[in-house]
Amino acid sequence: MTARFAWPQFRSPWMLQVSVGSVDGDASVPSGIVDEAARRVRLDLLSDWTEASLSLDLRTTEGSPSGVQVDSATVVISAPRANFRSPVRLDRDEDGFVATTAVRREWLAGVASVEALVLDGPPKMHVIGQADPWTMVIDPVDAPRPPGAPPIEIRWVDFTAPEAKHLNATYGSYALVDFREPKPVLFLNRGIRGLQEILEGSGHKEKRRLRELLGSSIAKYTTEALFREACAQAEGLMDDDGGVNLPSDRVLADILRAVAGEVPSVETVDELLTSLQSEVERRKLWSEIDHAIDRLSGNAGVVAGVLGEVWSV
After folding, report:
1. Which alpha helices (DSSP H) does 117-265 contain, by range?
2. Average of pLDDT values for 100-125?
């Protein structure tokens, strides 16, 4: 969304392009660092770096608004977690603005934003144009998860292995969510023949359908397990007067918010958790929760899609 001011300005966002020219002086930058579609720079993919050179390109195909003279452009790089904020003045070229700047690893943390502002001439120096912001991911913990991936760590383990004693009793299961560690972990059973090959493979149409069904089933089971654990933790955090407090784990808190948003008979997380304390309301509510999780995990859509493919053959 482009901010609107009381003075003339460009109606459409300018186009900002960010690229990595070199890392510690080496121009052979690994592929996948820049995601243009997501407007994201993945510096977290670099194992060890000190300084990265960024190339900035800002331009528009829109004509200048009446009464406005484009004078200059600035890109602001901000990393709130590191209390870092640095403006970069861009140079004018024939069609827009360009600049090269360097960022150092020691300056940044978490996720940094890259925002561009276009200004008119003095004495006003009004903001007359902006670009959709980019992000730079600095720390791996803040990296976006691949589409469809569960929001927790995944480990492949043979459930019958002596070193996996806590999984031996569930040797026949293909998945188990464990909450004994500080963060939830999804264990997948390497001991089931073909499971890892199917889930991580590609190719044949029938295997793809099976992979989609298995993946959505695991996603649904994981969501159910996370929701149950979130409810249990929230119940233990309730005040004496019934006030609701969410779990400190972000994944568990997000699961509660997501399910509450999909259940038609409640409007808030507080109402969802309070209703689950009532035996009468709980019976009706769990049916709605099951349907909500089925939709949220994508399981309902995958099953419908696969059945549609098979039925039309």
Report:
1. 165-168, 195-200, 205-236, 250-262
2. 89
